[in-house]
Design brief:
The chain is built from three helices and no strands. The radius of gyration is 47 Å and the shape is rod-shaped. The chain starts with a helix and ends in an 11-residue tail after the last helix. It holds the Pfam family BORCS8. One of its GO terms (cellular component) is lysosomal membrane. It is found in: Lysosome membrane.
């Protein structure tokens, strides 16, 4: 055989061999094996990240609930200022009535001690 013909046959053989190796290297089962290896290596880390995120979400939900509860309590305190003013007025009235009763009791019976005063 002549040299150019031999080179052509050699090139065909190497091309076929290269194509066969390429097909084998990229066969679906090899790709699935590589995918499985990747998942096996990265899954524990992903599972840990998921657990961390769930724990942070629970903590965040607890903090949000606490803040919402505190805001509600402050709003209720602000809304109840009307009632505090009403109670203050009633206490002043009660003190005034007690003072009048003490004064009236002293003027009717000078021998008896006055009612106790807590002012």
């Amino acid at each position: 055989m002549e040299e150019p013909e031999m080179q052509l046959k050699g090139k065909k053989v190497t091309d076929k061999f290269t194509e066969s190796v390429y097909v084998l290297a990229n066969e679906p089962s090899v790709a699935l094996y590589r995918l499985q290896e990747h998942v096996r290596r990265s899954l524990p880390e992903l599972a840990q990240h998921k657990a961390d995120m769930q724990r942070w979400e629970e903590q965040s939900q607890g903090a949000i609930y606490t803040v919402e509860y505190a805001c509600s309590a402050v709003k209720n305190l602000v809304d109840s200022s009307v009632y505090f003013r009403s109670v203050e007025g009633l206490l002043k009235q009660a003190i005034s009535i007690r003072d009048h009763m003490n004064a009236a009791a002293q003027s009717h019976s000078p021998d008896e001690p006055p009612l106790p005063s807590s002012a």
